[in-house]
Amino acid sequence: MLDAGCGTGENALHVASLGLSVLGVDVAETALAIARKKAEKRGIEIEFVAADAFQLERLGRMFQTVLDCGLFHTFDDDERTRYVASLASVTEHDGTLYVLCFSDDGPDTGPHPISKEELRTAFNSGSGWNVAAIVPDRIQTRFHDHGAPAWFATIKRI
Ligand SMILES: C[S@@+](CC[C@H](N)C(=O)[O-])C[C@H]1O[C@@H](n2cnc3c(N)ncnc32)[C@H](O)[C@@H]1O
Known about the structure:
Elements lengths: L1 E3 L5 H8 L5 E4 L2 H14 L4 E4 L12 E7 L7 H12 L2 E12 L13 H7 L6 E11 L8 E10 L1
The chain binds S-adenosylmethionine.
The site of S-adenosylmethionine has 16 residues, from helix 1.
């Protein structure tokens, strides 16, 4: 599994602890250093490397499963197009991308609320994706006691 924008690695570490092979990537070296320390302390085998989510093809690897928790919603329209293409370049045919992002289904939405339509537009068949499901969820933040409204999207690579 690839965790794009893994931050300090909590999600990637959880999946790796279940026995899957996981690569976490982020642009923030400070976050990666914390993630690597956590892995060492917990005795979890996992890779964390610095990589730009807009240039994932540079990894030279393909993944059956990709996770985006809290990255997609930080990008504007133009960036989304580039990011979606970058994700497509490293996701196997019939692979699955999971996106957890702020939703526009308030109250108390996060700072970059995304509509279901925006998700469907970004991950359209022309860009190599099929949105299989978008369900309401919550995403933890530093400024919400019980998380912010989120969409949990399951998106298939076609
Ligand atoms: C809101 S944090 C989410 C971290 C983690 N996924 C989580 O759920 O806790 C977004 C992360 O995306 C990273 N990021 C932002 N732009 C990026 C890019 N172009 N390429 C890779 N990582 C990026 C940030 O450094 C940050 O760690």
